[in-house]
UniProtKB/TrEMBL annotation:
EC number: 2.7.13.3
Provenance organism: Peribacillus simplex
Enzyme class: transferase
A Pfam family that the UniProt record links to this protein: HisKA
Protein name: histidine kinase
Length: 311
């Protein structure tokens, strides 16, 4: 009996010692985790909290802490990216507003101060002034449209639409201009109706922008094309030309807000850098995607892909 009692006492002592050492180790681990977190916050590093331990509770805590640190790094990276994007947006917007405003001011001052100009010269200046004001108004409208489209509460109503009719309508609107440019027109639209859930106004805006861009920048290829096809449960609209295309260095950024190619800075082309951004966002609002392919003087195309509906 004495032996059993003595054994129980020893067992309890061992348990108490083990619990004491375990609590001490846990306390040391927690202090070490706290110190590492403090250093990460103080020096703003992207390190993780790493610690060899066989305690499952500490292991789970480290996993969650490192997940939180990863999320924090992503938030910081997104903030820096957004801040940089906003800075570039303001810089580009300032440039694109300053140029037409300077020209408008020049025309106004010439009309106001120069009493020697003829009535015919005044008419010419007024026409140019009117064009610049319209360009400026169009740029501002596009900018505010993009802001509205990118807002979280922006929703466009969707309904069943035949892409065949929308494509035909948009090509017909540009047909006279295409012929005036001397372009060969190649349109491939099947007789069978291909339906999607879309918004006709949004589609018209997308195709209007893509077609006008193709005419503006791809006319040197002598061909304009639009192809409507189906496959793998999707419907695609490809608008293409055989012009000089878009250099590979620019291809990943053409959909960025206010990103323009060198040609778009040429007054002859008057690109705003907003049309493709708006087209991309509107396409995404209709659960679609838009893709660019460009090989100079062979084929440059923008392809919009939407989910096909058959009901």
């Amino acid at each position: 009996m004495v032996i059993i009692l003595f054994a129980m006492i020893i067992f309890l002592v061992i348990i108490n010692v083990f619990q004491y050492l375990s609590r001490r180790k846990l306390k040391q681990n927690l202090y070490e985790i706290s110190g590492k977190l403090s250093d990460i916050i103080k020096y703003e590093t992207s390190e993780k909290v790493l610690m060899p331990t066989d305690q499952q509770a500490i292991q789970q805590l480290l996993i969650q802490i490192n997940r939180l640190l990863d999320f924090n790094q992503k938030v910081i990276a997104d903030y820096v990216k957004t801040k940089d994007s906003l800075r570039k947006l303001i810089s580009n917007m300032s440039h694109d507003l300053k140029t037409p405003l300077t020209v408008i001011l020049g025309y106004v001052e010439k009309l106001k101060l120069n009493e020697m100009i003829t009535e015919e010269e005044k008419k010419v200046l007024m026409v140019r002034l009117h064009e610049k004001v319209l360009n400026l108004t169009g740029l501002l409208n596009q900018f505010f449209d993009l802001v509205k489209i990118e807002s979280d509460d922006y929703v466009i109503p969707l309904s069943k639409l035949s892409l065949n009719e929308v494509c035909r309508k948009n090509v017909l609107e540009f047909y006279d201009l295409l012929l005036a440019k001397g372009l060969q027109v190649e349109v491939d639209i099947p007789d069978q109706h291909l339906y999607i859930l879309g918004n006709e106004d949004a589609l018209n805006r997308i195709f209007n922008n893509l077609i006008s861009n193709s005419i503006r920048y791809g006319s040197d290829g002598g061909v304009f094309g639009l192809t409507l096809r189906e496959g793998d449960g999707a419907v695609s609209v490809e608008i293409w030309d055989r012009g000089k295309g878009i250099a590979e260095i620019h291809q990943e950024r053409v959909f960025d807000r206010l990103y323009t190619l060198d040609d778009a800075r040429n007054p002859k082309f008057q690109g705003s850098g907003l049309g493709l951004s708006i087209s991309k966002r509107l396409t995404e609002e209709m659960k679609g995607t838009i893709h660019l392919y460009s090989k100079p003087y062979e084929k440059t195309s923008f392809t919009c892909i939407f989910k096909q509906i058959t009901y």
